[in-house]
Amino acid sequence: MPLFAGDLTLRGNLTIDVAVVGGGIQALLVLRKLAERYSTAMFTRSNLGAGQTAHSHAFLHQGQMVARMPELLKKLQAAKEDWDDLVPKELLHETSFYWTPKEIPFDCPWNGLVPSNASVPFRVRRPAALYEFPGHYINAHDVVSHIGAPLLSQIRRIYQIDQLGVSPNNEITFRIAADSDRTAGYRVTAKAVVFAAGAGNHRLISELTKELGYRGQQTIKAFMLIIQGKEGNALNRGQLPHHSGFFPSERIFIAPRRHNGESVWLVGDGQRFWIQHPADWLHMSARDWFRRLRVPLFDLVPELATYGKEFAWGYYEAVKAEGDHDGGFPENSPTIELLGNLPAIAVWPGLFTLAPSAACKVATQTEALIGSQVRTPAPVWPADLHPPVIERETWLDTPLWSWSEFNHLLNGSGALAS
Ligand SMILES: Cc1cc2nc3c(=O)[nH]c(=O)nc-3n(C[C@H](O)[C@H](O)[C@H](O)COP(=O)(O)OP(=O)(O)OC[C@H]3O[C@@H](n4cnc5c(N)ncnc54)[C@H](O)[C@@H]3O)c2cc1C
Q1: CATH number, domain containing residue 251
Q2: Is residue 4 part of a domain?
Q3: Which tops the pLDDT comparison, 387 or 110?
Q4: 110 lines ligand 1 (CB under 6 A)
Q5: Ligand 1 site, residue 59, Cβ cutoff 6 A
Q6: Helix axes 403-411, 286-300, angle to 10 degrees
Q7: Domain assignment of residue 352, yes or no
Q8: Distance 346 CA to ligand 1 centre (A)
Q9: Total-model pTM
């Protein structure tokens, strides 16, 4: 099936060692790693950092959510060191992270875990079981800018990729259409390709590996609640404290942000809808999602309901593309797949936190595929291929409503407030 709207006139060829497809945190970190050794180019269909990256809480998990999964716990605790090395200290924002230990064994390695005596807004059922832990988050936009800006000369925004194939000498070939002029196309030839396109990996890999019966990805629909207030601890006066929390009983995760003197909570929950075919996207409406979320959320922080008028409210839909776990939590993250005997690798970090270690593994596998001696000269970019701009985080542009408008929107009756 043709993917381009109109006829594509091929205007030239681009030859490189490694092509990276994607535009989020994972593609960027892969590019950064591979560019140390090879001539590289990255192709993205959207702004840099769009996709899951812009929708994320961007919390650097150190195991708070997965203590029952020892392998993942170890990887996440090590990943914090990757981030310390990767971004300047001022991009790692500290937060007090509150956490309840439901079903979490205490023989797991946990540094710095102390029972909390602090006065926090979370009303867990057994206050004595509330623990405090130093946590870190990043602003995805800042990190994408920091990593992406120096690499922009190797990144081009395109309209689409098609005709993925393998040449007789086992190189990967495909066509790209320029984003500025969708009738202008170029043929790309690379010794290897890395698919780091999040949810977009699925179509690309299926096209390249038609006969392999590929089944490497699961796509999950989720939502994020945005609550904006003033900075401070007095929830009854519309202030939101700068705290994070993970509450397994309530299945709620809260990550704070600061913006123009305001405090913002990004609230996620355990509702994940596994999208198995395109029409599934319509399942789990925002209303259904919020009806289920509001009960445990208001149990945990009753002031949000009692003083709901003091805050501004919004939400957005998001997609998570992960390694295939039959819809379940991707315990074996990151997922890195070698595509048969082709010089092609697909990667899903599963979590933002794991993208640096996944990039290192992809680099090692690329070297195993094509060696380290190759160095095709860098391509001279045609004038109609432009670098992308850097995306803002989704929450920054999410429309916010008053409590009554939000109730009306998500319940149709205002009954949520009662
Ligand atoms: C609501 C939510 C909250 C999250 N919270 C956290 C958290 O707190 N901590 C954490 O560690 N992780 C979190 N995650 C997970 C994390 O955001 C993702 O694991 C990570 O951002 C994935 O990055 P990526 O680069 O693989 O994918 P993406 O960011 O999705 O990037 C894929 C890119 O590929 C591009 N693309 C797609 N198709 C094509 C194509 N055909 N050609 C060219 N380009 C293409 C897209 O435009 C996009 O820019 C969260 C995710 C969501 C959705």
Answers
A1: 3.50.50.60
A2: no
A3: 387
A4: no
A5: yes
A6: 130
A7: yes
A8: 14
A9: 0.94
